[in-house]
């Protein structure tokens, strides 16, 4: 009887845990797909520093939401790191060249 109860508890825990893992996996895949889609259409600008900074995947949604139709948007990510998000009108031009993902700039720019 004790084995049956343990088996039931284990099965119940396993079944409840699987949907959460599936949701995380689906969300990770969605963000990776968005990352690939947006590649070259934004730029991480590190100001007055040679720090190595990576952009977390969750900011892909922010890039998509902040993109303006006609104006370049600068989104402050950290005190010395910002995202440059070119407008739709720029990235949809035939001669648009994909941006380098990360650059180091001085504060004079």
Notes on the structure:
With 109 residues, the protein is of the alpha+beta class. The chain has two domains: 38 residues; 71 residues, no CATH class. The protein has three helices and four strands; from the N terminus they run αβαββαβ. The chain is elongated and about 75 Å long. The relative contact order is 0.17. The model has no long low-confidence stretch (mean pLDDT 85).
Radius of gyration (Å): 21 Å
Beta fraction of the residues?
15-25%
Largest sheet: 4 strands, mixed
Q: State the helical fraction.
A: 40-55%
Key terms for this structure?
alpha+beta; 2 domains; 4 strands
Give the SSE map.
Layout (H helix, E strand, L loop, with lengths): L1 H37 L4 E5 L11 H8 L6 E6 L2 E5 L2 H4 L10 E4 L4
Parallel strand pairs: 1-4
Antiparallel strand pairs: 1-3, 2-3
Helix pairs in contact: 1-2
Summarize the structure in short:
The chain has 109 residues and is an alpha+beta fold.
């Amino acid at each position: 009887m004790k084995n049956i109860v343990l088996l039931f508890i284990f099965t119940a825990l396993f079944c409840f845990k699987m949907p959460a893992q599936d949701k995380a996996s689906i969300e990770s895949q969605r963000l990776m797909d968005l990352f690939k889609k947006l590649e070259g259409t934004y730029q991480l600008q590190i100001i007055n520093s040679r720090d190595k900074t990576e952009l977390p995947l969750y900011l892909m949604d922010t890039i998509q939401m902040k993109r303006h139709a006609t104006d370049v948007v600068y989104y402050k990510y950290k005190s010395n790191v910002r995202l440059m998000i070119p407008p739709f009108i720029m990235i949809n031009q035939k001669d648009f060249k994909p941006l380098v993902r990360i650059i180091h700039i001085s504060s004079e720019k």
